[in-house]
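re the bet — no i am not wrong, look at it urself. input seq straight from the record:
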Amino acid sequence: MFDIDKALDEIRSIDVSPSSTQIDKAKQTVLHEESELDARRKAKRKRTVRISHFLAIPAAAAAMFILLIRLAVPTPVSYYSVDINPNIQMAVDQNGIVCSIEESDLEIAKDEIVGQSIEYAISNIIITAQDTGYIKDNENVLIGCFGEDEYNNISKNQVRAYLSTSLREDIVLMSIHGSLEEWENADKEDMSAGLYTLHTLYSNMMPDQDITLDGLITLIENEQNKDVQTLLEENKEPIHYKAPQLTYTLDGDNAVFAWEPIDFKKINYDGDITYQLVSAESKQDLLQNPTTVSTHTFASWDEQPTDYTLAIDGNTAGRYYGIIAHYDDGKRVVDSFAEIGNAN
C-alpha cells in the first residue's frame, strides 16, 4: 500500500537550492532576452523615424515650391498709366520693373514691356505709338503714377532721355500723380487712371468712360481758362533747392572733398544740374568772384558725383572752397564752405 505521508516527507527533505552554475545560466538567459527586446524596440523606433522623415520630404518640397513661386512672381507696389489715345496701364515692382501690363488697342509685344524699367517701358510705348500712327505733331501724352511716393520715382525727363530729339519735339509730355485709392476708383469707373485723376482734379463733371485725353484737356481748359500744363505745374509742390554740404580730409599731399548725394525727387526737382567746385581767398569772393576748380553735370535721376581729390600746393592751400549747385531753371545755391589751411 502506498504511504502518502512518507512520500511527502521525502519530497520535503529534498534540497531544491540551485547551484551557482544554474544561477549564472539563468542570468545570462534573462540578459539575452532583455537585449533582444531592447534591440527590437530601437529598430521599431528607427523605422518610425525613417517613415516620418520620408513622409515629411514631400511636404517640405511642396512648401519650398510654393515659396519659390511666390518669390518668382513680383509684387506690384505702384501703377502707371500712359494716355495717348489709346492708353496702357502697367503694374511695377519695388525695383521699378514692370511686372504686368493690361490689354490695349496699341499693338505692342508684352516682352518689350514686362521685365523692363518703367522709364524704358513708357518711352517704348511712346515710340511704338509714333510708329503706328497714333502720335502726330504736338500730340498730348499723359503719364500717370499711382502709389507710395518712394516708388513713384520716375520723371518726365527720365522718359525724354530715351526719346529722339524729333520725337521729343512732337509730343507734349505731362505727368500726374495719384494714390492707390484713385487707381482703384478709376478701375471701378472703367477708366484710365491718368484720365480719371486729371478729370477729378480740374472738373466738377462726372467722369466719362469714353472721353479721350484731347477731349478732356479741351473740357478742362475751357472750364478753368488755363492750359492743362500750367494747371499741373501749379498743382505740384515747389522745388526746395539744395546744394551739397562740403567736407574734406587730408590724404598726404591731397585734400579729398566729399559730400552726400541729394534726393532730388524729395525736393521736387526734375532735370539737369551742374555742381561747380570753386575756390577763392575769402567767403565773399567765393560767391562773387570764384575760381572754378571742377564742374560735374548730371541728370537729377542719374548717379551723382560725391567726391573730388585736389592736390595741395602753393596755389591751392590757404583758400576757401565750396560747391555751387546750378539748376537748369537758373537757380544757384551754395550750402557750405571748406577752408584749407596754408601748406607747411
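see?? The longest strand covers residues 139-147. told u. also The chain has two domains: 78-235, 247-340. so pay up
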